[in-house]
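Sharing a chain and its predicted structure for anyone who wants a worked example. Both blocks are below, sequence first, C-alpha cells second.
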Amino acid sequence: MKRPTVASLKKVSPENLAALGVERLADILMAAAEARPELKRRLRMELAAEQGADHLAPKSKNGSRPWRPAAARSRGASDPASCATSTPCGS
C-alpha cells in the first residue's frame, strides 16, 4: 500500500479531520464560533436539531405548553369587513 505524502496529510478532508478526534475538533469549532457569530448560530441550530422539535418550546410545570398561537388568543372579529365603523369590532 502506498504511503500518504506529507501534503496529503495536511489537506483539509473529512478523513484528515476525523483523524483529529472529536475533542480536538470541538475545541477548534468553539474557538472559531467565538470569532464568527454566524458559525455560533449554525452550531446552536445543529444542537437544537439533535434534540428534536419537542425541545423548541418551553414546558410549564405540569408539562403543557404555556403559550397559545396568536389566533387562539385573538378576541376580535375574524372578518374586518363585518365590523361597523361606528362600533368597535367584536362587540
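Comments welcome. Helices lie at 6-10, 14-20, 22-35, 37-51, 70-73.
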